[in-house]
Design a protein that fits this description.
Amino acid/polyamine transporter I; 2 domains; five-stranded antiparallel beta sheet; two-stranded antiparallel sheet; 24 helices; 7 strands
Length: 683
């Protein structure tokens, strides 16, 4: 059994990122004009000179994750081989959706279609074709490109944390590149960059939420719009986020996320039923078709000849930078809730499932807004263009029972807002902590600290220019972190290629399996028909398995291998696990483990009365989890043959690995404690 781990601050990352973030916030509050001018100049340079880079990066990331999903690498588990998903699909997608976009979707589902209708990047404005393309542009900015960035970071986080048993941090993702340097300032720098990108991405989302909720509260309760109300909302969000985030993923974020999605679906159904239902449903189908047919052309459209730099910086470049900034945040959060899924399931779920909901949501709200404008409500359109936070609520005001609908929408927005804040605080706490066990999270005081800091940054950006300043800051911060995306792609590919080599090694030695040791057929039948009690399992471990592994240890040691044998108790099983391991410096260690798994006795096996309704499987485990078979009843020679066969597989794996080296190995990793992967059974 592994020792109890503690979560402690990563002081260099915490102090370094805090100084930069608080410094920027104080600068913006004390010298708002100077800060606003500097940010504006930087944005102009990025939009003019690096637009092509953002678009190319987005295309490369999408192509990379699609390749991973379709290739044999997609079968790789994001966790040990025996692991199963912790959350059901609805809960998983709810948490992803609520934490990933939430309040921003309410804002842009009306604001962007209206803006693209009046001010498209190309072609005539204010006609039916402009309305049609307006939805396509909105779907493009909220479509698979951004979710692919989430899938890249989330898949990498989950793989290195739950498959390679490394800390759940940005630096772990770069282990194949940084090696042992990830523990020094190279790793600290990467983590600080991730914190900066994340906190500005979250601040942008919270800033949008504050402005929009302020208008909703004005409509409901007459609360004036302005800085005072926005400060109050930020304070309330920090308090609510603190209460939610200290409850953890299971209690706080999970339940709020599920409620968010239910409320959003109710809002959609109401708008579809009370509006022009036929036109809205026709619009959904048409918009999706338009998007699919035009997507390849949109992907790498840099507008080289027309060069609408202002439009590009306000929309496509901003969104790509925003997705990049949010990628470590949402990616880590996704990894935290995705242990046990395959890489293919993960990528497909992240890229496809949320977009289906987004397409319906944007199509219904966007087409509803455009229908009003095309029907003569130009005043509504101009208001939504100049004050986008009002567009969403002004649209709802046109429907029956407007006060009730606006109240529901405000509650939905508030919950989206809180889930963004609390999940953001959780992730930032993890980024700035040293966490040995990836299933643990940063401490509650650390989460509270980041909730407060994020609120302070949001307020400072709002004071010097509102939402546009937050957008500009995100566009700037996205540039350095985009480099990290390329490094993550290289790192993940190297590690997954190592997995392929490991599988090749296993297949190359398949003839050496235990089947090569003859077993009388009567003994085979008795073994299959037996469901051992704890006493019998313990007897086998002590009298047969331990002696067999000791013999293998002695023989390997005799030929010069750095080998060790250990025995430790397994919680809940009341039995020991036996571990044979061999160390290979700078390479993957060999691990062969006989591990007790407690199972309920199946009904077909209850032939005779027994004291317990449980039986015990003694499964073979390697460093990547259970091989799925039971060795109870093997003779000592058979168990030795099985251990030697695994050792041969490991040596073949090292041989076929480029340069004889596992690129994802940084240092010795302890044998994981598997007991939390199995349900607790009580007599």
């Amino acid at each position: 059994m592994t020792a109890q781990t503690t979560v402690r601050p990563n002081w260099p990352v915490l102090i370094g990122s805090s100084i930069l973030i608080v410094g920027i916030a104080v600068w913006a509050i004390v010298l708002p004009d100077q800060a606003g001018g500097a940010i504006g100049s930087a944005v102009g340079w990025v939009a003019t000179n690096l637009g092509w880079y953002y678009i190319l990066t987005a295309t490369v990331v999408l192509g990379f994750v699609v390749y991973l999903a379709l290739s044999p690498m997609g079968r790789t588990k994001l966790g040990p081989d025996h692991s199963r998903p912790q959350f059901r699909l609805f809960t998983w997608m709810s948490m992803l959706f609520a934490a990933g976009i939430g309040i921003d979707l309410l804002f842009f589902s009306v604001a962007e279609p209206v803006a693209q209708y009046y001010e498209p990047p190309a072609g005539a404005a204010e006609n039916v074709e402009a309305a049609r393309q307006a939805i396509v542009w909105t779907l493009f900015h909220y479509g698979p490109v951004g979710w692919a960035m989430y899938a890249l970071m989330g898949g990498a986080f989950a793989y290195f944390a739950y498959r390679r048993n490394m800390p759940l941090s940005i630096r772990s993702l770069l282990a194949p590149i940084l090696g042992n340097r990830l523990r020094g300032w190279a790793g600290h720098t990467v983590d600080i960059a991730a914190v900066l990108g994340t906190v500005f991405g979250i601040a942008t989302s919270l800033g949008i939420g504050v402005v929009q909720l302020n208008y909703g509260l004005f409509l409901l309760f007459g609360i004036p719009q302005g800085v005072a109300a926005q400060i109050g909302l930020i304070v309330i969000s920090v308090i609510m986020a603190t209460i939610s985030t200290v409850s953890g993923v299971e209690k706080g974020i999970r339940r709020l996320s599920e409620l968010n999605v239910v409320l959003a679906v109710l809002l959609l159904v109401f708008l579809a039923v009370t509006g022009n239902t036929r036109r809205l449903l026709d619009g959904v189908v048409m918009n999706v078709g338009d998007f699919v047919s035009s997507f390849p052309g949109l992907m790498m459209n840099t507008f080289a000849w027309t060069q609408p730099d202002e439009w590009m910086s306000a929309w496509t470049l901003f969104f790509w930078a925003w997705w990049i900034a949010w990628a470590p945040f949402v990616g880590l959060f996704l990894a935290r809730i995705s242990r046990g899924r395959t890489l293919r399931q993960f990528i497909t779920g992240v890229v496809v499932v949320p977009f289906v909901f987004i397409a319906v949501f944007i199509s219904i709200l966007g087409n509803s807004a455009l229908e009003l404008i095309l029907g003569g409500a130009d005043e509504f359109g101009q208001t939504a263009l100049s004050s986008p936070e009002q567009g969403f609520y002004d649209l709802l005001a046109a429907y029956p029972a407007a006060p009730v609908v606006i109240a529901l929408a405000t509650l939905t927005g508030l919950l989206f807002y809180v889930t963004s804040a609390d999940s953001g605080a959780l992730v930032l706490a993890n980024f700035t902590s040293i966490i040995d066990d990836p299933r643990e999270d940063g401490s509650s005081p650390m989460r509270v600290y980041w909730a407060v800091v994020t609120g302070l940054l949001t307020l400072s950006m709002l004071l010097i220019g509102g939402i546009s300043t937050l957008q500009n800051a995100t566009l700037i911060v996205g540039v350095p972190f985009s480099i990290v995306l390329y490094l993550v792609m290289i790192s993940l590919f190297r590690a997954l290629r190592t997995e392929q080599h490991q599988a090749e090694g296993f297949r190359a030695t398949v003839t050496a399996r235990v089947a090569t040791v003859e077993t009388p057929w009567r003994r085979r039948l008795r073994r299959v028909a037996e469901f051992p009690t704890r006493e019998k399992a313990l007897s086998y471990l002590e009298k047969t398995a331990e002696r067999a592994l000791r013999e293998v240890e002695a023989e390997l040691s005799a030929v010069g291998v750095d080998v060790s044998y250990s025995r430790s108790d397994v919680p809940d099983a009341d039995l020991p696990t036996l571990v044979l391991s061999a160390r290979f410096p700078d390479h993957a260690d060999f691990v062969y483990q006989v591990y007790p798994v407690v199972e309920e006795l199946p009904s077909y096996a209850r032939r005779t009365p027994r004291r317990s309704d449980l039986y015990y499987r003694l499964e073979t485990f390697t460093a990547t989890g259970s091989r799925g078979y039971d060795v109870y009843g093997y003779t000592a020679e058979q168990l030795i043959a099985d251990a030697v066969a695994h050792y041969e597989s490991h040596m073949e794996f090292l041989r076929v690995t480029p340069d004889g080296r596992d690129a994802s190995i940084v240092e010795d990793a302890p044998v994981p404690d598997w007991h939390t992967d199995f349900p607790t059974h009580k007599d």
